[in-house]
Every structure is written in structure tokens, then in C-alpha cells.
Amino acid sequence: MPYIPPSVMQEVKRMDLLTYLKNYEPYELVHFSGNTYTTRTHDSLKISNGKWMWWSRGIGGRSALDYLIKVKEYSFLEAVELLAGQANIQPPLSVSENIPMEKHLLLPKKNEDNAEVIAYLLERGIDKEIIRFCLDSGRIYESVFHHNAVFVGMDAKGSPKYAALRGTGTSFIGEANGSDKNYSFSVFSEKPSETVHLFESAIDLLSYATLQKSEGKEWREEHLLSLAGVYQPAKEIEKSKVPAALTRALKLHPEVKVIVLHLDNDRIGRLATKAICTVLPKQYQVKDEPPKYGKDYNDQLCIKLNLAVTKRAKAAKKSLASHKKYER
Description:
Elements: H1 6-14, H2 17-24, E1 29-33, E2 36-39, E3 45-48, E4 51-54, E5 59-61, H3 64-70, H4 76-89, H5 115-123, H6 128-136, E6 140-142, E7 149-154, E8 160-166, E9 173-175, E10 186-187, E11 195-199, H7 202-214, E12 223-226, H8 244-252, E13 258-261, H9 267-279, E14 285-288, H10 297-305, H11 311-327
Parallel strand pairs: 11-12, 11-13, 13-14
Antiparallel strand pairs: 1-2, 2-3, 3-4, 4-5, 6-7, 7-8, 8-9, 10-12
């Protein structure tokens, strides 16, 4: 666990949300009225007079630390580390009311090896050759401090534009600052393919690929795409939008005719599936193929391989214990 001096901790707690967003995520900041701001991601979150309130969820706070923990769901340690290191890896960005800022992805530093990430993926049942492919292509690596698994999304030139973070020994789930949800984790076929498969997470995508490979199928013949987090439909489903990552994928691969949805077997996953089916243009053939067993495709893979299904609960318990120890 990295040591953070009390003086740095004091500065971290002192930083308010408006200062943080203006300096480091200006593209996320939207002027609402007067001295009130909101964010592009959450239009019901209002920032004013040194405080912020996420009205749709009924939660609020003062500091950027509160925001990272309560809204972006970073662990306490991850949020502290991000704020403490922010000024060292990126000087403040200038903000303009009129000119939209291009997102600047701040990738976590790479560890000297990927041992913990490899062990984590193997525990989740992911095939060794698929893991090696992702490591060699830069799609996955291990971060240096918390040894998180970093799942990288790239543009057509192979430049990183998005990064999902997943704890290898904790239940932490997050995104690297500056992540562009148009470029979520994917493994597109090298040859033209009429089919794209859509998943909620990178782990589900890799689990599906492993299942295909275990059945003797070529797992790279069709496009595989994960969403950048859980898809949130509009209250009126017909007013929902096609997920940004899928919109980009369809433009990048105009030959696609079939979209296969592999979203989770829960209320949120089923609602997201219904919404995407509703708003996709009628030119596409849409198939709904949720996992046959368990909540998601990693559950289905673990069940098939007889792997323990209690790892997530153990990870969550370990994360909570680590948090309490740090606060003491």
C-alpha cells in the first residue's frame, strides 16, 4: 500500500469538485446558470458554492474526493491516489466556456510485469492464449500501484482512448481519467465480418471468446465489443440512444448486418437489451443471447469450468478490510 504523507492527504481532502473538474476534466464540466455547473455524464449533478449534489440519487458532498468515491465509485485508496498524483502527471488544463476540450487519457503506470493480472484472469477462467494475445497487443496490462487489471480501448490507429480498471485482489471497478466511452475495450475481426457481439464488460467479452475457443470455434472471426459500463436507457425507452461504443463500431465496420446482444441476466441487463433493440435502426438483424447460466458470461464460463463462484464476495470483503485499515 503506497504511503501518502499527511500534508498531501490534507491537500487531497481540500480540493473541491469545481476546481478538480476545471483543472483536470474540463471536457466534463458544463455551465448551467450563474455560478452553477453540471457534468456531461450526469446532468442532475449540480455544483455550486463549493458544494455538489447529485439530485437523481440523493447524494452530495463538498470535495473532489467525495465525488470520486460516491459518483465514480472509486475505492477510497484509488481516489486518494488519483488526486495525490494528478498534479504530478498532468499540469492543469485550461478551460473555455465555448471551445470543447479534447479528452486526454491518463493511463495508470505499467507494472514491470503482469503476473497478478495473469493470475486474476486465469482464476476467472480466461484462456491462456487469449490472455497472451491481449497482453501482446496492449489491450491489457497491470498497473504499478494497486496491480489493477487495465483494459484498454483503442482507436483505428491503435492509440489508447479508453481504459477500464478492475481490481485483481479487491472489488474495485473504475475508469482512467479522460476515458472516451466511444472507444471501449474491443477485439475486432481482422477481416470484414457481418456480425458484432456486444457485452457489458471486458471480462464478459473475454469469457465469451474463451467459450468459443473451448468449443473449437475461431474466436476472432467476428467483432467483439464491450460497453463502457452499464448502459442506462432513457426513462422512455424509445427515447434512448444507441450506446456510443456501438455507434462508432458500426461506422467503423459498415459491413455489419447482425448485432448479437450478450447483456446480463438481471433487471438492468434485460432493460438495456430491450432499449437497444428498440432504438437500433431496422436495417440490422438483432439477436438477444444472454448467458445460459448465471448472471453474466463469466458466470457461465466459471460454471462450465467448475471454478469457485465466491471469489467476488471474497474480493469485496478484502477491499472493505483494506479501507478500514487505511482509515485507522
